[in-house]
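Bug report (template v2)

What were you trying to do?
Predict the complex of my protein with zinc ion.

What happened?
Run completed; filing so the output is reviewed.

Input:
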Amino acid sequence: MNANDFAMQRCLKLFSLAKAMWGKDQTLAKRYVWLAKKISMRHRIHLPKEFCKKCLAVRIEGTTVKTRLVKGFVEKTCLICGTKTKKGYKVKK
Ligand SMILES: [Zn+2]
């Protein structure tokens, strides 16, 4: 294992901690996400899209994010700040 693998493990652990902490202390949960973001920037690794880029809220389906299918896109709306992200999908025939 190299340093990037350890960094990825640390980030995933921080995400699980943030998800567990969201109901109790949102500021601490955002701090965990911020730390994971800093680690990923230091080690240049791609994080899973489990947080809002604008307000750093961890994505929990139904609690902090809602997902809709809009005209060929998967649209995820942050319920904290209202930021929308879109990703296209293709239906195979
Ligand atoms: Zn947000």
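What did the reviewer find?
Strands lie at 65-70, 73-78, 84-88. Residues 52, 54-55, 57, 78, 80-81, 83 surround zinc ion (CB under 6 Å).
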